[in-house]
Automatic annotation (TrEMBL):
Gene3D superfamilies: 3.40.630.30. InterPro entries: Acyl_CoA_acyltransferase, BioF2-like_GNAT_dom. Residues 174-319 form the BioF2-like acetyltransferase domain. This is BioF2-like acetyltransferase domain-containing protein. It comes from Catenovulum maritimum. It holds the Pfam family Acetyltransf_6.
Length: 356
């Protein structure tokens, strides 16, 4: 590739060795999230039935990679980064979505100009991603339409957070009181233990219990009711739990799970992906969710993890436990055309009518 170049080529899913070597080489020097690691990306490629394409983009001598799916209709052509465009398949749910950028990649990303040239002439969908990252894209000739947004919260962890009392004192007085009261109450009911899976067998057992609790709360809308979601995450647990990238955590009362976490640990960051909570005890002092997050943050501090990411979604407990926030978005970068401007005006009019 030249100093500034761009290509989109089909990926042969039956032979990913060469792509694996290329991806891992760039990943080894990149500042990327777990969701752009080869562990996640390769599992996603092998889970979805859709054709996928490799995006290679070189800018100022630094290489970036991405995996694309393509949607084409009579009126439009759209590429999606690390997503399919299918609601069912995309319930697998990626966050911190981005290109895999090599070192020294320019802050200003001029990628979109390549999507408007030659035979491609397509829109590009990226998300869910940090709004600061999406703002780096040069939108000349494009309309950036935000279709989803939510706050995201995280907690910085220092070595001092290895001490439980120190960690509690980093929270507000009200949050600290709730956690201490919950720990005392749950302990009065029996023996309390925080357990982390250390084998594939143990991880799958905890994963299955979390799935049951998650479905009890969310019913058919739970990802665990979706075959694509279940296949993807079961394979991810099997492949990565013993390598330390997947962390299955169980808070147990007399050997029974009252709260479980499905987390990822990558580089110096831990990601809270989803949880399962036992709501059978209705006492307001029973807050196993707050407690398990606090206890696992203490453990992560001992593991020299620098940040605990609660990920996107408004929730009081996230806000209570976090000390940092940002906005996450999904954005359609649409070609600036009369048709797209007209369609956007129609959407805006509908929105104003709907919400008064």
């Amino acid at each position: 590739m030249t100093d500034s170049s761009f290509s989109i080529t089909p990926i042969d899913k039956s032979n990913l060795l060469q792509l694996s070597e290329l991806w891992r080489a760039v990943e080894s020097t990149a500042d990327n999230s777990f969701f752009i690691s080869w562990a996640w990306i390769s599992n996603w490629i092998n889970t979805i039935p859709d054709p996928v394409y490799l995006l290679k983009y070189m800018e100022s001598g630094s290489l970036s990679l991405g995996i694309l799916c393509h949607q084409k209709t009579f009126l439009s052509s759209t590429y999606l980064l690390n997503k399919t465009g299918s609601k069912a398949k995309d319930q697998i749910w990626i966050e911190h979505n981005a290109l895999l950028h090599g070192p020294s990649f320019p802050k200003h990303i001029n990628l979109l100009k390549h999507f408007s040239e030659g035979k491609i002439k397509s829109s590009l969908v990226i998300g869910v991603s940090q709004s600061d990252y999406l703002s780096r894209f040069d939108t000349l000739g494009y309309i950036a339409r935000c279709v989803w947004r939510a706050p995201s919260y995280s907690k910085k962890l220092t070595k001092n957070c290895q001490d439980y009392d120190y960690l509690l004192n980093t929270f507000s007085k009200n949050t600290k009181t709730q956690i201490k009261r919950s720990y005392k109450y749950i302990s009065s009911l029996g023996e309390v233990e925080l357990r982390r899976a250390t084998s594939q067998t143990e991880a799958l057992v905890i994963f299955k219990k979390i799935a049951g609790l998650h479905k009890n709360k969310w019913g058919d809308s739970s990802g665990f009711s979706n075959p694509y979601f279940v296949k993807f995450h079961t394979q991810l647990v099997k492949a990565q739990c013993e390598l330390g990238l997947v962390d299955l955590v169980s808070l147990e009362l007399d050997g029974k799970m009252v709260a479980g976490l499905y987390n990822f640990v990558y580089k110096d960051k831990a990601y809270f992906y989803l949880s399962g909570i036992d709501y059978s005890i209705s006492d307001n002092k029973f807050k196993p969710g707050l407690l398990i997050h606090t206890l696992i943050m203490q453990q992560y501090a001992k593991d020299n993890i620098a940040e605990y990411d609660f990920m996107a979604g408004e929730a009081r407990y996230k806000k209570s436990l976090a000390d940092t926030d940002c906005e996450m978005q999904a954005v359609y970068f649409e070609r600036d055309s009369r048709l797209n401007r007209f369609l956007n005006n129609v959407r805006c009019a509908k929105s104003r009518f709907r919400f008064g």
